[in-house]
Amino acid sequence: MSQTRLEKRFADLKEEGRGGLVTFVTAGDPDFETSLEIVKGLPDAGADVIELGMPFSDPMADGPAIQASSLRALRNGMTLSKTLDLVRAFRQDNQDTPIILMGYYNPIYIYGVDKFLADAKTAGVDGFIIVDLPPEHDDEFCIPTLDQGLHFIRLTTPTTVGGRLPKVLNNTSGFVYYVSILGITGTAAASDSAIHDAVARLKAETDLPVAVGFGIRTPEQAANVATVADAAVVGSAIIDTLKENLDDDNQAKPGLSQAVLEYVRTLADGVRGSRT
Amino acid sequence: MTTPNSYMNGPDERGHFGIFGGRYVAETLMPLILEVEKAYDAAKADPSFQKDYDYYAKHYVGRPSPLYFAERLTRELGGAKIYFKRDELNHTGSHKANNVLGQILLARRMGKKRIIAETGAGQHGVATATFCALFNLPCVVYMGATDIARQAPNVFRMKLLGAEVIGVESGTGTLKDAMNDALRDWVTNVEETFYIIGTAAGPHPYPVMVRDFQSIIGREAKEQMREAEGRLPDQLVACIGGGSNAIGLFHPFLDDKEVAITGVEAAGFGVKTDKHAASLTGGKPGVLHGNRTFLLQDDDGQIQDAHSISAGLDYPGIGPEHSWLHDIGRVNYASASDTEALEAFQMLSKVEGIIPALEPAHALAHVTKIAPDMDKDKIILMNLCGRGDKDIFTVAEALGVEI
Q1: Count of structural domains within chain A
Q2: How far is B204 from chain A, CA to nearest CA, in Å?
């Protein structure tokens, strides 16, 4: 089978000898047009993989920043099918940067799994991270995703220990997302040594690339993570920058996307300088 | 769909009742949920666990709760004989104690050092705070900001009992948001914390565990009814938010085909409006809070806000076993509006001298609709699952009375 866009990206990163930067933004935050402008600018700002949040009313694993981000998008009329529209619009000018949709299962379940996978594939989505679908529910969405030739990226956590790790790694594809802390997005950060040990533990069990996220806020942290892992994931900190550029009605102020992309550039510079 | 030989065998080993139930949770929680399941299975098989439960149920909660023949109400309605299972007489004022007792004994068995809970009306929060005081465990209760405002007496009660009450501003500040934040706390403090879920919902094994602990209601009622009338009732009625008091009453009767069973959802301003909490009548299957069940949601799968005058029924979902019983038709689900519940609330206070909670007032509203048309030799058994002290401010406000 030929390499997928996501596999190629990680292979290229390996060849370049550097860790990658995975950036998270919520689709449609604060509105569709601004969000598209940000996503279109992410590759040039240095994002190697784009993680795009599918807004959900009840994001149980997310902290205040991403909760608010989801609600802003929903209030401005974002839906799952508009998220696919956004990916489609992005793909008109970009065929190289992988897009991973991240979110919760219910909107997909209501959309219809088969229809959603078909539409997502056509739109140019490369894979999914679905927070509330553990391996115990693989038959529901994970297996159909793999059957479509798309990736299902699983979260592993500090509690994924003992006999459970192989179960979690099984059917995981594209990369493994290590959640470095116990908790929700955008809160505490794990220590470098804890991350180092955890990545080593995962690497002993899988050949898949390992990305590390939750709690990474600064270029320095991102750089440190990118020295031990294949990629660093930054989300809430990007959303915080977005939020600083909203007016009192939560609408985008002029220059919002430039400010967000500028911040992403500092993260990318950190990551790129990390192994030199 | 084939009719099962027994309605009491569920769930399967993956926690499914038909297509409902399951364990839709983040990976961080999964190992712990499996651990809770294992610990619960071991506890069930351990006679000393049951012995502890029985001891506190009898001496601390005050079980068995009486079965009471509401003679005046029966005469007033002029039809079927009406019995109440008086779970409002439990310590802490509702059926919630039955479940919290079981779960806290399990938490102790598992060596957990900290308890968290979500609460809507505050009944579950009060019950949890009470048992945490008894067993000297730190207790954090998540409660929606809207609910804190309308259930002030229970907030104060929880604080008196030593609990920390955390107001939840996210979403609409009601029960579903409190549950989101409780889950976020659990993910963060997973190693030392036990999450006592208050209703028969959430990831497996919670729905079955809560049902088992609440089934004491139905088991006692069955025996008491045989003693009082020499037979089983013709009709069971209970209110449903998440549905823990209802499944507790219903479950022991599910295989008694001669017993008709009705659950009463909160219709709020009416199930045809967008302000109600009737997940079965007005919702469709979806996945939230760890289980697949009927949910109030829009066409995009976004969860909608529930509305009910009763904070305890103000939840956009329902326990997965109820979704299944609805699907296979074993239980009939009806609804009662805010106005009907308020009327029933006032009627019971005057006719029987019992001030019911607004939650069972919904069940009572249904009873007042069906009893007059039933023969006088028929028997209705209703679960009076909570007392109304906590609701007098809400009711006064609804009636335009200043107190």
Answers
A1: 1
A2: 12
